[in-house]
Amino acid sequence: MSKKPNPEAIKEQMLSHLEEKYGEEFVPISLSLSDWAYSYDRLQAYPKQGSEQDHFEVWGTKMEDGSYRISDGYFGILIRPQYEAALSGIVRGTYDEFKLYVEFGEGVLPDRLNKSTPVEQIYSQDENFSSDTVIFVKQSLVQDQNIEAGLRQIAGKMREQQMVGFVRLYVVVDEKYDSIGSGPQNLSALQDEGYFVGDYKSVMVTPDMTIRQNGEEVVADG
């Protein structure tokens, strides 16, 4: 008969792993043990020096050899400011004024990524890492421009810097632009409140470094 898992011991093992990897302390939020739906234990945590808004997932998996493998998504919290700065530098080549934010989704990231990993060393063809970027621009600044061509130009620069991910651009009614804050936004609520002009436009840089738009592979502009 297999030994019943000890939730407190699992939690402490995960927290110790995080502290050793990142050199800081973390606060646990909730722990869910593996079950029929998930083959791994799942901890929600956030950095002690941060806030609960900076929460991320930690996964613990019992391997066939009896070892316990721990992976986490904290790197996405750490790298976000640098990643947004790098993307802002790219977008600035296409639009003079804009706002943007980046998210990396739920789940865990490759274990080699840590505090010392710069943006330019994130990409690896054999690993799962992608970004989700939202850009806001004023209607008056782009009303005579080809938005999709601008996005292809941005995607081309992303590919040059080996930055993978999905980019959405929302054209914002001028009078509402200043009231959009920094960081992730409730896009559905903004849509309902009449912030946006039409639907968003998008482009994607895939893990194999192709550029796709409207379901087709495209050539980068510029």
Automatic annotation (TrEMBL):
Taxonomy, superkingdom? Bacteria
Protein name, per record: Uncharacterized protein
| Organism of origin | Paenibacillus woosongensis
Q: What is the phylogenetic placement of the source species in the record?
A: Bacteria, Bacillati, Bacillota, Bacilli, Bacillales
